[in-house]
UniProtKB/TrEMBL annotation:
Family per record: Belongs to the GatB/GatE family. GatB subfamily.
Highest taxon, organism lineage: Bacteria
InterPro entries: Asn/Gln-tRNA_amidoTrfase_suB/E, Asn/Gln-tRNA_Trfase_suB/E_cat, Asn/Gln_amidotransferase, Asn/Gln_tRNA_amidoTrase-B-like, GatB_C_1, GatB_Yqey_C_2, Gln_synth/guanido_kin_cat_dom
Classification via PANTHER family: GLUTAMYL-TRNA GLN AMIDOTRANSFERASE SUBUNIT B MITOCHONDRIAL AND PROKARYOTIC PET112-RELATED, GLUTAMYL-TRNA(GLN) AMIDOTRANSFERASE SUBUNIT B, MITOCHONDRIAL
Keyword check for Transferase: yes
Name by which UniProt lists this protein: Aspartyl/glutamyl-tRNA(Asn/Gln) amidotransferase subunit B
Subunit structure: Heterotrimer of A, B and C subunits.
Gene Ontology biological-process entries: glutaminyl-tRNAGln biosynthesis via transamidation; translation
Length: 290
């Protein structure tokens, strides 16, 4: 590998569940990881098709053709004698005690694939999210801490794979060096969920936390005045003013142009300086527009 060259062989055999070990075929002289995967995948499919058709697999040496994506036989080997195998007198039989295997297995950390399966089962994550979050034990632990503290596993996943990952990549640092801890991110997600701030405001808070402008979510929200409007009467007044000032958009909406409604929502959010709850704005506008 250090010389910029790569050569490897792969042995492939398949069997039906519970059956004896299958007959192997050896794929020779693979020169890239890509071709190795393609060759193994094809050979597995070919052997399965042969067995399902009732044909026996013959032990052989094969080559992989990258142009066709198929393997082809070079020569067959009837039995071990063709390989010139012989017992080495200096190597005694090696017996591995099952108890030792169980002990080692019990001490092993949770492997990525098993962890991804667990995240799907325990948190209801899509498989893509689970695979991404288990790229390192530290990232998986960060996710679980955020998910458990916030009670919102999917939102935790979205934030980690989005805002958090983007900054980690930009700064070329790992999750252990992230300036926003799991508990802080969970608190931020909680404030979005309970309607204290909007999702867009949440990103502003996250920026401030990441850049060290504050250590507590609520303190940053207060300092930046990002709380959503809780006064329904004040919001209704803003809506009335927006409708009065945008008669053309009102007329276009009533004529069936949905884009005009989005323009009214934008005007209402602008008038509230981004503090209005978008869902409430939509509801009030639709109610007043009939």
């Amino acid at each position: 590998m250090q010389e910029g060259s790569f050569r490897c062989d792969a042995n492939v055999s398949v069997r039906k569940p519970g059956a004896a070990l299958g007959t192997r075929r050896e794929i020779k002289n693979l020169n890239s990881f890509k071709f190795m995967q393609q060759a193994i995948d094809f050979e597995i499919r070919w052997q399965i098709e042969e067995l399902e058709e009732g044909r026996a697999i013959q032990q052989a040496t094969v080559l992989f053709d990258p142009d066709t994506g198929e393997t082809r036989a070079m020569r067959t080997k009837e039995d071990a004698a063709d390989y010139r195998y012989f017992p080495d007198p200096d190597l005694p039989p090696l017996v591995v005690a099952p108890e030792w295997v169980d002990q080692v297995r019990a001490q092993m950390p949770e492997l990525p694939r098993a962890m991804a399966v667990r995240l799907v089962a325990d948190y209801g994550l899509p498989e893509y999210d689970a695979a991404t979050l288990t790229q390192s034990p530290e990232l998986a632990a960060y996710f679980e801490a955020v998910a458990q503290a916030s009670g919102q596993p999917k939102l935790a996943s979205n934030w980690i794979m989005g805002e958090v990952a983007r900054r980690l990549n930009a700064q070329e640092i790992g999750i252990a060096a992230a300036p926003v801890g799991a508990a802080t991110l969970a608190a931020l997600i909680g404030r979005i969920q309970d309607g204290t701030i909007s999702n867009n405001a949440g990103k502003q808070v996250f920026d401030a936390l990441w850049n060290g402008e504050g250590g507590e979510v609520d303190a940053v929200i207060e300092a930046k005045g990002l709380k959503q409007m809780q006064d329904a009467g004040a919001l209704e007044q803003i809506i009335d003013e927006v409708l009065a000032a945008n008669a053309d958009n009102v007329a276009q909406f009533k004529a069936g142009k949905d884009k005009a409604f989005n323009a009214l929502v934008g005007q209402a959010m602008k008038a509230s300086k981004g503090k209005a709850n978008p869902a409430q704005v939509n509801e009030l506008l639709r109610r007043k527009l009939g």
